[in-house]
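thought: fold this chain, then report.
action: predict
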Amino acid sequence: MSLSLEERRTFRSSVDGLLSARASIAEGRHLASTEHGFDDGLWRAMAELGWTALLLPVELGGVGTGMAEVRVVLESLGERLVPGPFMSSAVLATGALVDAEASADVTSWLDRLGDGSAIATLALPLIPTLGDSCLWPEARLAPGGWALSGSVPEVLHADVADLIIVFARGAGDEDDLVFALDRKAIPHHMDSFPLVDQTRRMQTVRFAESFVPEQMTLARGAAARELLRRADLRAAFACAADSLGGARAVHAMAVAYAQERVQFGRPIGSFQAIKHKLASMYVDLVSSDDAVYEAAEQDDLDSPGAIRLLRSAAYHALEAYPRIAGDAIQVHGGIGFTWEHDAHRYFKRAWVNRALFAGSERLRDAVAAELFSAPVGA
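observation:
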């Protein structure tokens, strides 16, 4: 169920109102040095307003909306560089659980994810640009379940997640599998590593013959691969929406500075070189906005045309954001490089977004491979 245009305007106003009051960029700087790296109070407020249940169907106690409404939240979070697990928990993990035909033990998590009392993350395997070879943990049969070994690098917010969704390759003749792991119940090791983007936390999760009960299996075989395909597309869209919000904010920052900063007795925005740079940034921004908007309105992870549109839109937004953020630093001159200024924070988030989930080039290559293999006129 998608909201009407008027309802969506009201929803956007509500989202912007809460984040404007509770999630300043200065607060984000402070949160980067705290234990969790995000504001627990803001997370509870987001949950109370139903943001964490946007992708949950109404029959499961959720709001029952789709990608267009998720886009509103992701854009607003990206615009303010808000730290927190919304993308990993409310979008990627919740979306995967809704897609899966899971056991009651697993679907019981949806209530807690929907009301924000639990946090989840999605441990996507590193998917290559082309081909079938991936970096997956390995699962082998054990009495009553599976023994899981191996590691998944680059897992967002695994350190605060209560539930980790893991894709695994079956040992021997066993097929691909997806598990929903209670972090407190499954033995594992976690290595944190710093990111240039301080608004995010990321870990490598390692398993060593960790026992996983059978009832924690989300999907197997073709169903597991389908779950991975949909999760991968949803991740691309989420990064694109976050990038669009950040690009809009840093472009506005550059325009405002070009109007205020005076050199040789006139605002620097009156100089042709700055005008050209701002115009190029605007073209990147508007084209990204149109593409991501159209992909969100399709709200379809199954039809070939919609998938191609989503990948193309995500690739464009993920490539445009670093260009816009880099040009914004150039417009600001020396001050844009300083630690005290916010321009570099957008620049860093832009490059991390571009690299997440195996990188934007993979999206480009997937679209190119499909186009070159498609019949003429398709």
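thought: worth noting. The mean pLDDT is 90.
final: tokens above.
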